[in-house]
Amino acid sequence: MEIPYTVSTRPDTGLWNAKIGIWLFLASEVMLFGGLFSAYIFLRIDAAPGMWPHGVLNVPVGTFNTCVLIMSSVTVVLAWAALKMRRYRAYWWYMLATISCGIIFLVVKLAYEWPQKYDHFGIYIKSEALGKYEQYLGNAYAAEKELPPRLEITGHLHNPAALTDPNIKEYEVALDPLNADPTNPSMDRPHFLPLTVTHKIATIEKADVERATMFLPTHNAYFASYFTITGLHGLHVLAGVIVFIYMWLPVSKKVYQRNPEHLANRVEVSGLFWHFVDLIWIFVFPLFYLL
Amino acid sequence: MDASASVEIHHEPHGHDAAHEHHELGFWRKYIFSTDHKVIGIQYGLCGMVFLFFGFCLMMMMRWQLAYPGQAMPVIGKWLPHIFGPESMPDGKMTPNFYNSLGAMHGTIMIFLGVVPLAFAAFGNFVVPLQIGAPDMTFPKVNAASFWAFAVGGVVMSMSFFVPGGAAKGGWTSYVPLAAFDDTGPGRNPVFNGQTLWLIGFIFLITSSLLGAVNFITTIIQLRAKGLTWMRLPFFVWAQFVTAFLLLLAFPPLEAAIIMQLMDRLAHTSFFLPAGLVVNGAPVSISGGGNPLLWQHLFWFLGHPEVYVLILPAFGIVAEILANNSRKPLWGYKSLVFSVLVIGFLSFIVWAHHMWLTGMGSAVSAFFQTTTLLISIPSVIILSAFFISLWGGSIRFTVPMLFATAFLPMFGIGGLTGIPLAFNSADLYLHDTYYVIAHFHYIVAPGTIFGLFAGIYHWFPKATGRKMNDFWGKVHFWPTLVCMNVIFLPMFLQGMAGMHRRWYDGGQGWGVANEHTIWGLTGFQWNHPISWAAWIMGLAQIPFIINFFWCIKHGEKVNDNPWEATTLEWTAPSPPPHGNFVQTPVAYRGPYEYSLPGRERDFTMQSEPVEPAERTRRKPAAEPVLA
Amino acid sequence: MNNPPDVTQDSKEYEEYAHGVQKHVRGYLIVGATLLAFTMITVALSYVDFGAILSSLFHTNLTSTQGRKANIAVAVLVATFKAGLVGAIFMHLAAEKRLIYRILIFTGFFVLGLFWLTLLAWYDFPIFR
Description:
The complex is a heterotrimer of chains A (291), B (627) and C (129). Chain B has 627 residues and is mainly α. Chain B has 18 helices and six strands.
């Protein structure tokens, strides 16, 4: 029993089945990421001044990843075009390039970007204690320049035991450049190149701390949305890579030999999914890394 | 059945993989992991009915507590703690937490594991490809994946009853912040607890619905038989088409919200949690910055289209049965189609009428009130068209027709009682009272479920080749109809008196339920007849269950078209083989050509060619086309 | 992309079709390069203080928050342009069938409805007053 219009097009719609299917699925994905983006919008609008961080992500690395995904979008459409032109070898190489780009993206994210965050530490100071740590926060300077208040001291935690041991009464933090020199005008806006943690150590008493954690989803609304959206996006990248691997393995060559248009259609459909994943990243990148 | 109808044999470009269709599939591939839409439809149907029964049992347990709060449940009270854990019903007496679990899970199971799988997935899967003359769905493997995702989700949800702490207790709506902190802390597993399992199970159910929706829409667009234009589709297919769009576009924002609630619970984020939150007397260590209203918006963005998902398939089923049993075409086919499309569209922009008490401003409230009232118009058009369809008909009260006719006034009551709730001013009083429960249950219970019963009795012969027993069908119908009304009609009065939903003691400890009498009984006292009617209604389902299973093997054998219906599924053998049709059908006419003048029989099948004598200005003898 | 001829058809017709596909390859490469260029532009623009520029242009004093909003608007506009290219060229939307457009238009309407109506409810903008 053959399902009609799997490969050939139905005359009145001009489409074959999977093409409609994938666009319907992508419509649902738009609504899914739409729900997450709406959460991002409301969390950001509602954030109290100074509570939404800027410039905490590595922009060069993010830019690199963006370029990797864009390149993979180009290679996947070239792979599809090669299939349409019945050039299987070329298809095979382009598909390999796409898969590699996908894997590079995931490795950069999971083996570098995310761990970089888990190792970074942030302390929200209690509002009544803000004056005590003015040397690290520079709120008088910020108020003078009409910048948002600084409520957080960030950097590397030198005594991680303090997180779990109630007997240790203070955190020792190697400060980030902003906290090391808060009144420096170059610190007013984020930088392109990530600034390394300085050697200046600050001691912050636990009694003055509102909240102190690593840069994990729990740290604040920004990281909650960052990890959730990039995590879900990453799962979609992984799914796409797995599908592409299947379409690149010899088992798919059999489909090509039986009916090349069938494989071309499958690649087009997965390519559409992949472009959508790229599209989402095109919005995620500026919203989280740059703004 | 007119076997002499000339049917074109339609050739498709043939792939070279014909080999795999001809060898016999083993037991597992044929009956368990089947990709055949009929098998999948039956799988969904059986699972859906089992869950409906389970959800019904949960309700019967709740009704004991409501009528006799604090008293030990007789007979089964002894061994329920062995099933649900000693915390649930010590000495057979229901604890408040267990009552809340029953309430939350009754709602969740009935809607997402019972009605939607049965109305949309089961009937849709089995009937739609047959009604459009297709050999199967466009994506059979995706169809199977959809069913198995549903099955996993069902298992996860059911499992939640047996973990420490029991099943989810925060209502089927899982409002935060309660749902974010429920089932956490000492004595609770971080993942294997009621609320988290509810969330995880839901992700599987949503995935299942999304895959199903993609399949349905593509199938209806692409696999309609030659000559079956959009305006010749049976109304059932239109209803399923719109339902699929609702599921496709409305479910994902809830999936996003569920992911965020899972993050709140497992990763301790604060998507929905504001700063300064105090739980159990102690401030919680969260970052804050979130908002509980965000959950409500995202939930009800699905929640409202969801209720149309519950009713539209039933509209479709009732339409088919009314036309068939009044031997008359449906009145107002075009207005029915137009109305169902408008309902689909409007259902996306009315959701905040579930949130009247959240403090929204008057401007946006006015918007949602307007759209909510607007959406009642197409519903009234549909119901009126159904009523008018009966006028002048040659009505025969088969068992499906009993249920379909009863559907009309029952849905009418349900729909009309929703109107006061559309006004935020009236809703200030009625929100969260038994009035709301009565309103939506009238729509879903003597509404949708009657439609589903009608559909089961109607299409049983197609699926099995045998009819269900008429006498026992009537024994099932009459007590069910009476009990439905005894259960839900007084609830309107209880609600208007001020009795709240989700009170675990049934109002016993509240003044509004005990001070005044309505029609001779106090609000709390009305719980007694309601509960007894519920239990009697439970008994009335036994003839149905026995009838259903008995007649699969021993029912009266019937031919391929026992109801003398006109739509394409009745041209296929009963039960249809793999591939459905001996020859691909072609449609020459509309779906409800009953009682055509000048014809010998009072029905003409859709696949019967148009005779020269029949050709009129409106029905030229154009060759059927793909359109 | 135009409908491919049926597999069973003449191979010469198929060659013509394949040649048509070849012409599009150049387009894909140009769009790819454009996307990469605009990524760099997005990053560069994010470091431009639009708040200060608009303040001097209109002789007002924009706060840093308002300035940030200007940057957000610019970045989202560029992102929309890039997304449009991906959609139109890579996803073949520019040459796609009506049906697909209709599905997407409805989706777009509903996702914007989700954002806008929720925003309204959040802040009760007095648009009807």
